[in-house]
Write a structure and sequence with these properties.
The protein is an alpha/beta fold. It has 2 domains: 153 residues, 3-Layer(aba) Sandwich (Leucine Aminopeptidase, subunit E, domain 1), CATH 3.40.220; 321 residues, 3-Layer(aba) Sandwich (Aminopeptidase). It has 16 helices and 17 strands. It has an 8-stranded mixed beta sheet with strand order 7-8-10-9-13-17-14-15, sandwiched between helices. The longest helix is centred in the middle third of the chain and has 25 residues. The N terminus is likely disordered. The structure holds zinc ion. Zinc ion binds next to loops.
Length: 510
């Protein structure tokens, strides 16, 4: 099955004339008065006039008949009050709402005013991304009916056709294409995105890029031997051909290897469906679990950004750990004693803690590989624990190992996230988060999860990954990202976090 491409490049234009006849509406983000954002004189006086009619224009999105803009239709999308606690997300939200409102009003050719706001250095990028996000149509909808929700959009900037603005637009389009790839994988149902279908989708998405190398491990014997913990999770599902596990390695190598200064190795959890397994999710807790592949989706999306933006200084290896946590006669069950690729015996204690198993052996392999690479940084990205969501809501929890902590990498991620409109929270792995994973019975090196633990579930999951990945004593920078809260759950579309932040912090943008 070939994925239906979502074309962006040929229907996005840079426009300098707010009255161009090519557009049927103008979307303007309305900033509070204390943040000085200069507007064209006519429009400013128009807004001053209508503000006397309706003070609410600074609170809700409104549509006005205005002679000074394309289509004589002005969509005003206010940010609301901006305090020193706010970050670029206010821009993203206003742009998103403005685009949604313009489409609701019937606009097919909206023109978005992309303002330069001192408070938000990456605000123009975030503004464009917020508007593009509103245009996303889920893959399965596109496959049934490829009617576009708009004909084209224009992006208006005061900087006119400056080189910098063109660059920003190009960055935004590349990022959005990457996020579409991630949203397609994460958001599609568990049959549309089975492991094998994800492989096909990924292959078709990257085809023709000479900087991208894809390796698919699909042989059952190899999976059983090389990825024993992933294989255990997938045991019930492996009876069904289309649900057989796959490990996909996507590598980005820039054209000139001598310019590479860092190697990123990213492992993503790609559980195409999580029933919980023998420890079944009950009482309606299972719905939405097709999103348990969001980590792998984000890894693929990040590679897509590299493929499009071609950062010369990075080598990137992404691993998608694709499996399905089914329930059935061959399900793995608690009490089983497994041996990880790192040589640790691991006692199964709750089959619903499958994410750490799905990634464990790939993480170990990447850790082994990392020490041979230049300036490596290792990541796991996963919708791993409900606890992360309980702690931080829709923020991504970033946890550094000892080595990554020496450079405060999580804080750098949090800073980048605030610049591009993705929320991050720095979380710390304490010594007890490592030891709590130690086996309790004879012959057990580790337990899958301590069922008696009353707190710190997302931190101890990080501790488990460090231990099972053989990273405890290795001096390799490693950051675990728990996106359980940030990834977005139905009925919301997947957020594709943390693609923007990773691109920002690792300078993938042009
Ligand atoms: Zn689970």
């Amino acid at each position: 099955m070939s994925a239906i491409e979502y074309k962006l490049y040929e229907n996005v234009f840079i426009e300098t004339n707010l009255q161009s006849v090519d557009y049927d509406a103008v979307i303007l983000i309305l900033y509070p008065e204390d943040i000085q954002v200069p507007l064209p004189r006519h429009i400013q006086s128009f807004i001053d006039k209508i503000a006397k009619v309706d003070k609410h224009i600074h609170k809700t999105t409104t549509v006005w008949n205005c002679d000074y803009v394309s289509g004589e239709r002005l969509v005003l999308s206010p940010t609301g009050k901006i305090s020193p606690y706010h970050d670029a997300r206010v821009v993203r939200e206003a742009a998103y709402k403005g685009m949604v409102r313009a489409m609701d009003a019937g606009a097919k050719k909206p023109l978005l005013v992309v303002q330069n706001v001192v408070n938000f250095p990456d605000g123009q990028l975030v503004c464009i991304l917020g508007a593009l996000e509103a245009l996303y149509i889920p893959l399965q909808t596109r496959e049934r009916d490829n009617t576009k929700n708009i004909s084209w959009i224009g992006l208006h900037s005061e900087e006119k056709l400056s080189e910098q603005f063109e660059k920003t637009v190009r960055n935004a389009l590349a990022l959005e294409k990457s996020r579409i790839l991630a949203r397609d994988i994460a958001g599609s149902d568990p049959e549309r995105m089975t492991p094998v279908n994800i492989v096909n989708y990924v292959k078709s998405s990257f085809s023709g890029d000479s900087n991208i190398f894809i390796k698919v491990i699909d042989d059952s014997n190899t999976i059983n031997e090389e990825y024993p913990l992933l294989a255990a999770v997938n045991r019930a599902a492996s009876q069904i051909d289309r649900h057989k596990a796959r490990v996909v390695e996507i590598e980005y190598r820039p054209s000139d290897p001598s310019r590479v200064t860092q190697t990123l190795l990213l492992v993503g959890k790609g559980v195409t469906y999580d029933t919980g397994g023998a420890d079944l999710k009950i009482s309606g807790k299972m719905a939405g679990m097709c999103r348990d592949k969001s980590g792998a989706a984000a890894v693929a999306g990040f590679l897509k950004a590299c493929s499009l933006l071609k950062p010369p200084h990075l080598k990137v290896i992404g691993v998608l750990c694709l499996c399905r946590n089914s329930i059935g006669e061959d399900s793995y069950v608690p009490d089983e004693l497994l041996v990880s690729k790192s040589g640790k015996t691991v006692r199964v204690t709750n089959t619903d803690a499958e994410g750490r198993f799905a990634m464990a052996d790939s993480l170990f392999k990447m850790g082994e590989l990392a020490v041979k690479e230049l300036n490596p940084h290792l990541y796991t990205i996963a919708t791993l624990t409900g606890h992360a969501r309980l702690c931080y809501g829709n923020y991504t929890a970033a946890l550094d190992n000892h080595s990554a902590r020496s450079t405060n990498h999580s804080s750098a991620l949090q800073f980048s996230g605030s610049r591009v409109g993705e929320g991050f929270e720095v979380s710390v792995i304490r010594p007890e988060d490592l030891t709590v994973n130690n086996g309790k019975g004879k012959g057990e090196d580790l337990i899958q999860v301590d069922m008696d633990a009353k707190a710190r579930h997302h931190q101890l999951a990080g501790g488990f990954l460090i231990k099972v990945g053989g990273l405890e004593d290795k001096n390799v920078k490693y950051t675990h990202l728990d996106i359980a809260g940030g990834a977005g759950s139905p009925p919301s579309e997947p957020t594709a976090v943390p693609i923007l932040t990773l691109c920002h912090v690792h300078k993938v943008l042009m």
